[in-house]
Every structure is written in structure tokens, then in C-alpha cells.
Amino acid sequence: MPQFDLAQQAAETITIGQRIDFVWGFVKRRYRGMLLCLLIALPFGALYAFTSPKVYVASATMTIETRKGPLETQNSALLLDAAWFQTQLQALKSVNVLSYVVKQLHLADDPLFLGSENGVISRVRARLGWSEPELNTEADRVNRALAVLSSGLAVQRVGQSYMIRIDFSGRDPDVAAKIANEMVNGYIFDQMNAKYQANRRAGDWLQERLQNLREQAATAERAVVEFKAKNNIVTAGGALMDDKQVSEISSQLGATRAHVADLQVRLARMRAVRQAYRSDRPTSGSDESFAEEMSNPIISQLRGKYLDLVNREIEYATKYGANHVAVVNIRNQVRAIRHSIADELGRIEETSKSEYEIAQKRQDELEKGLGNAIAKSQNVSQAQVTLFSLEAAAKSYRTLYDSFLRQHTESVQQQTYPVSDARLISSASVSQTGPNTIKGWLITIFAGGMLGVGFGALRELWDRGFRTSQQVKSVLNTDCVALIPRLAREPSRLRALSFRSDKTSILMPSAISDGSSVGRELHSGSDMLWAAVDAPNSAYADAIRSIKFAVDSGGSSPCNVIGLTSYLPTEGKSTVAAGIATMLAQSGRRTLLVDCDVRNPSLSRALAPNASVGFLEVVTGEANLVQSVLRDKDTRLAFLPTVLNQRARNATELLGSAEARRLIDSFKAAYEFVIIDMAPLVSAVDIRAASRIIDSYLLVIEWGATKTDSVQYALSQAPAVHAKMIGAVLNKVDFASLGRYEPYGHSYHYYGRSAQRH
Question: Taking the domains of the chain in order of start, what are their residue ranges?
């Protein structure tokens, strides 16, 4: 619905100042309930202050030694982290430590410690039958002492240090101090006893385990010696003889294979160079470099001649031409030298080939020898795998035996010399902590205040009535045109109204005037109907005047038919309708006031209690308009009442009939404004029936009484009213209380005092 969107937008634009104003307004509205809740809570605070017994707290401090003693090993080092400290704090509160304290101080035999109370609360509990059961047996007393000791005990770490503070709360300061000090002794005894028991159990287990490990180690070493003798395994320098032989042959074989590969490459390269010199194609740089690497003097001499002839060939060819006889002779000599080099290379190749065959034969012999050595050592290698396993097992057993022997020795020493890690460094100091009267009163005041705030908030939730104009705007999506103060009732008086036969009357249309002159009196049951005229400077008159301006500026047709309705019939819609009509009439506007509340014509009963004909009779034709309309001689207001007629047909059908529509159209020709007092919204049928004759609606809401959800639901059932509504009016406003709901409500105090005067 649109109103929820507006409410959300308003909530998003709330400033800090507005929030402060809302809180202050809430306090001003609900301060009486808050004070009442606070006064109710004060006796409970007084009861606590006068009946609570004195409580003493004894605090002792102990430290945990982090330096290891001479008999402690690395394995007993303390890991002083947060988790370890939490463990020790829980150990301090364990049953073992508490039982030690109870036993040493004989707390199970102390009636005062066990809870023999003589306070007011204890006597009340005893009368109600809620007292503790009697402690007849020793076990019951011990359990009770443990429970009391545990409830009064508090332990905590002192900062990030290695110290722990022990606090105990009790009613006897001496007993509290003894308990705090004895807790340290109990912790030390528990730790030493735990260490002794652990070391004793470890020593017994280690001794039994040592015997088994000794036998296992001896058996494993004996198996190693027997296996070596059985498999003829001989070692030298920690390695097997067969392994050394295989290693030497493998090294020789690797060198021989490298030499064979080198010779093979050189033969292939030599063969390629020789073929190049045998042919007439030019030699490359790599061929020449290989020939140089040969280091043969014959080849070196031939290459010198070869290079000299090549240079001379180039020189002669340039000087005499490529086909000159001298050039051809030199070219033949070059070819002969190339063939000579190739022949020399062939001879060298044969020599290298013989060397290659010798190296290859050496390689074959080494490979055969390596195979024989491997085959020979295969059985020894397989046996060595088993030997390694046996030696590892023997070594493992020997290591375990040595380790367990060392731990057993340490365990025996620790059993003989138990050392504690904790000691008392600060004896218990006692201070009185209760009853904390100031804290009790503060808690009482806070609890009373919170109870008051909760009670006020509950009342705020239950207060679902309309309180401010902004609330009307956000909930109903319409303007609040006026805030009308609540008026006090005064004695009634009479007002004389008469009909005029003048056909030029501005109040009666000439078409319906019968020329007669009849004098009649208009009775007002209360001056509230005429308050806007009788007291023009009052707050009520200002509110009605604000509605008049809204109505006067909102219409565009020659006559505005304005219907006033409310959710319930007691919200003052008839009074507001009369006030608007009289204000319009007094300002010179031709105004007709019509009572169309056919079920409860309260306006007609107030202004014309003796009327015999009215709106329904005019619609049905049983009476003419001249006989039915009344007129106020002071304000020149015309009024058409409604008379309940049991013989007439259904009044709701008459409201929606064509005759009623024609009658209202005739009013538009004679009057500038037609103010109609409608039925309330709860009479949804009457509202829908009359919606055809109404141009615009004005909704009257009783301040603080009418529920927001009720009005929303009623308007959803009458969409025509919501569509034609020009605004809403908050009626019966208490201006003195309005400031509690609006931050600027103090500006209404003037109107509140004015309303009281008038």
C-alpha cells in the first residue's frame, strides 16, 4: 500500500535530532509508568541491602616454576601456553584438590561452613519448606563441603605471567584465608602424587620392557653372525669383495667404450675427408681442420704446396685468364696434390682401423669379464638383502634397549626425588566484598528503569491510535488539514430559524420556494456546534477555519458536495460538519448542511429534535424542500435534517437512488457548498450507497482513540472514500499532551490554554 512506502521513506530520512526528540517525547509520555516501576523496584533493593550477610574474599597467589631442576630432563619441560594454563586452572578446581582441602581443614565438621544460615531469606525458605535436607552421614557432609567450596572458589591467571591467583569467598575471614592457602598445598600434593604414580607405573613397565628388548637384541645379533658364516660373506673396509671387483671392471669397461666410440667417429670422418680429396669438389673448412688435426708431416707438406698452387692459380687466372696454358698446368698440379693427400689419408685410415679393431676386442673381453663377475656375486647379493634386514633389526633392538634403559634410570631417580613445579609466593589476604550496597542500588535502579522502559514500550505498542498529523500522512497517505481541540460541554440553547418566501433568497432555490413564511426554532443540544461562530478567536475556531480554507480552495466546480465521515459514530464528525458549515455560511458563502446519517442522525437530534420531515421524505416525495430545510438567522445557514421513518423503504437504497442524486444536483444550483454528515465507515453499505452523490470526503478521526489499522481496513473496504478524500481531521485533541508526541508540540500549549478558556 502507498502508506507503507511513505512510512519507509520517512524512516530513511530521520535525523539524529529527530531521534532524540522521539526518545524525549517517549520519556515525557511514559515517565509516570517508569517512576512507578522504579518505586516498585526500590523495596527489593532495600531488602537486599539490609538482609544480605557480609562476604569476605581471601586471595592467595602461587607461581609455576619454568626452570628445570638438576634431576629434570628435556622431556619434563613445561609447555606454558594458554591451553596448559587452562588445564591447570581446571586441575585446581578438581575433586582431588578440593577433597584434600576439606580433609586437611576439617570443613565437613564445620556447621557454619556447611551453610547454617540465620538470615531472613533462609528463614523464609525454611517456612516454605525449601531448606536444605539434614546432613546425617559423613559422606553427605563431605559432599556438601565440596559443593560449598567449589561454589566459592575462583581461580585465574595473573595477566600473561606464570602466576595463578586463588580467590575464595566466605562469611568467615579466617576460614577463607586458610582455604586459599591450603588450595596451593592441595595443588602441589596432587601434582607430586600424580608425578609419583606416573613415574612408578612407567618404571614398572620399562623394567618389564627392558627384559624383552635385551633378549630380542641378543637373538637378532646372533642371527646376523650365523647368516654370514653360512653364506661365506666376507667384507673388507665395510664392503663385499665381489662388489669391489665388479666396480673396478665397470670402470675399465666405461673407459674402453669411450675409446672405441672415439675411434669409430674418427674413422668415419677420415673416410669422408679422403673421399672429398679424391673427388674434384672443393674442400670445406671442417675437412681442412680435420686434416690439420691428423698432425702428419707428409700431409702438412702436401697441403702447403696445395695452398701455394691454389693462390697462384687464382693470380694467373686473373692476369691471363682461366683457360691460359699456365693456369691449366697449375690446375693439373693441384689435382695431383689432392690425390696424393687422399692416398696418404687412406694409409692412415688403415692404421686407425687396426687400432679400432684392437679396442673393440678389448671392450668385448671386459664385457665378458663383467658378466662373469656379476654372475659370481649374484648369490652373494641376494643373501646380502637378507643380511641387511637382519642387521637393521639387530640395530633397532639395540637402540630401543639403550633408550629404554636411560628412561628407566631417569624414572627411578624421579621417584626417589619428586620435585614440585608450583609454590606459594603470596599468602592469602582478606577483604570484605559484600554486601555491595552501591552496586545493589545501582542494579535495582537499572532494573526498575528497564522495567519502566519495557512497560512504557508495551503501552506504546498498545497505543495504536492516531496522535500526530505526520502519522495521519504516513498511514493514510493524505493530509491532516486541522487539529481540533477537545471542547467542554455547556448548557444547550435555542436558535431561531425561519423560512423565507422571498424567491430571491440566496439560501433557498426559487424553484422549490412555495411563497409561505413559517417561523421555526433550531435547537442546539450543545454550544459545541456553534463554538466556531460564538468564539471566533479560539483554537477551535482556528481549526475549523483551517478546514474551511482547505475546503474552499479545493473545489473547482460551482458547488462542492463534501461528505464528512469517521470510523465510529462517536468521533465528532457531526460537530465538525456543523462547525465547517457555520463558518462557511458566516463568511457569506451559500451553504447547506445535510444530515445523511440515516441510521443515527445525531446532528438532526441536536439541531432539529422536533423535525417531522427531512432528507428521506424529500427524496421519496412525501415532503417538499421548503417544508424540510431550516435556516439559521444569524449565520444564514440552511440545514436539511433526517428523520427516522420506519414506514419508509430501506434508507440505504434511498441514498443510492437516482432521486437522491437529482436532489443533490438541485442543491448545486442554489448553494456554493453542500456539507453532508455521512454515516461512519463501519456502515460500509451506506458509505458505498452515498458515494455517487459526494464530490469529496473529509475524514474525522478521534485523537488517541481511533485505531490506525481499523481506519486502514475501513478505507480498503471503501475505495471511493479514499480516492475522493481531500484530507483528514484529528478531533478532540489534547494540546497539553500533544507535545509528548510531536517534537514541536510545545507550540500547541497556547492553543491548549485557549481551548480551555473557550
Answer: 2-52+436-462, 239-416, 557-757
Euclidean distance between CA atoms 344 and 306, whole angstroms? 14
The pLDDT of residue 565 is: 92
Cα 41 to Cα 562: distance, rounded to the nearest angstrom: 55
Residues 652 and 542: beta-carbon distance below 8 Å: no
Rounded Cα distance, 300 and 743, in Å: 122
* Residue for grid cell 586441575: 91
Q: Which of 698, 728, 250, 282 is nearest to 475 (CA)?
A: 728
Neighbours of 435 (CB within 10 A): 16
Q: CB of 520 within 8 A of CB of 629?
A: no
| Alpha helices per DSSP H over 115-172 | 120-127, 138-151
3-class secondary-structure state, position 675: strand
Secondary structure of residue 494 in the 3-state scheme: strand
Question: In 3D, which of 734, 655, 733, 741 has the Cα closest to residue 700?
Answer: 733
CA dist 35 and 179 (Å) reads 46
- Rounded Cα distance, 558 and 188, in Å: 105
The strand ranges marked E within 499-603 are: 519-524, 560-566, 591-595
| pLDDT reported for residue 109 | 87
Q: How far apart are CA 23 and CA 451, in angstroms?
A: 16
Other CB atoms within 10 Å distance of the CB of residue 213:
21
Of 20, 19, 33, 67, the residue nearest 454 (C-alpha)? 33
What integer pLDDT is reported at residue 73 of this predicted model?
47
Q: What is the pTM of this model?
A: 0.49
The list of the chain residues with pLDDT below 50 reads 1-11, 69-79, 116, 118-119, 285, 292, 490-521, 525, 745-758
To 5 degrees, how large is the angle CA 557–CA 558–CA 564?
70
* Residue appearing with cell numbers 446532528: 603
- In a 13 Å sphere around the CA of 429, the CA atoms on its Cβ side amount to 5
Residues in contact with 377: Cβ distance below 8 Å, sequence separation at least 6, in sequence order: 240, 242, 243, 245, 246
Please, are residues 562 and 481 in contact by the beta-carbon 8 Å criterion? no
Residue 726 C-beta-side C-alpha neighbours within 13 Å: 23
Closest CA to 482 of 730, 650, 753, 215: 730
Amino acid symbol at 696: S
Q: What is the CATH number assigned to the segment(s) 557-757?
A: 3.40.50.300
CB 412 within 8 Å of CB 196: no
Question: What is the C-alpha separation between 206 and 222, in angstroms, rounded?
Answer: 24
